[in-house]
Request: fold
Amino acid sequence: MGNVQSSLPTYYNADPTNEAYTHSLSSYVDLASSAIGAKLIRASNERFGAAANLIKPDAPSSQDGKLDAWVTRRHNPEADWAVLRLGSAGTVAGFDIDTRGLDGEHASQVSIQGCLAPESSAVDSHGDVDGAEWEELLPEVDISANSHHLLALWTPTKNPFNFVRITLHPDGGVSRLRILGTVAVSSDSEGEVDLASVNAGARVVHVSDEKLGAKENLILPGRATAAS
Reply:
């Protein structure tokens, strides 16, 4: 799958039940959410569930017996992968690999790579982005069924990324993938810019209450679609 650079930041399990790590990733943006413009570009296989499910902003659900997850066929000769274009380029601080709703269909291990390339770059049949080299963000890690796997980098990446590739070793499924980081603000924008948009680097620092809706909804791009 092309060359992978091996400059690996150290990560740790940011278990939310451990008070020492409760807020370690809470202030970061999900760069891989479709709510801020992330897109699925290409996947090696989607036999039992669409890879676009990875970037849904809502929690996975099980309705009508259908898997709300990316799930590939089993016993593949090579590892399966999906390439996502992030909603905004940004530095990466951690990951939320969510397998809720998968019990036996989940992957055994996953790894994640990133690169920075023009948004219109093509992705070939091997999962490589034209003209770019992948940098390893997360090595192969074990994942379990029906679980959140919240993994934080001890030091966020210095360089921004706008494409990520998640690889399943060797196959299986993941319900949601959150790439948690900080938007890299561009100085090349022309015309008016919404300074309160997450895509411009805005973050909600604190609210008095969010019982009926998440504070992050305030800074999403576009118009509200429904009350929550």
Notes: The longest strand covers residues 80-98. The two ends are 41 Å apart (CA to CA). DSSP finds no helices and twelve strands in the chain.
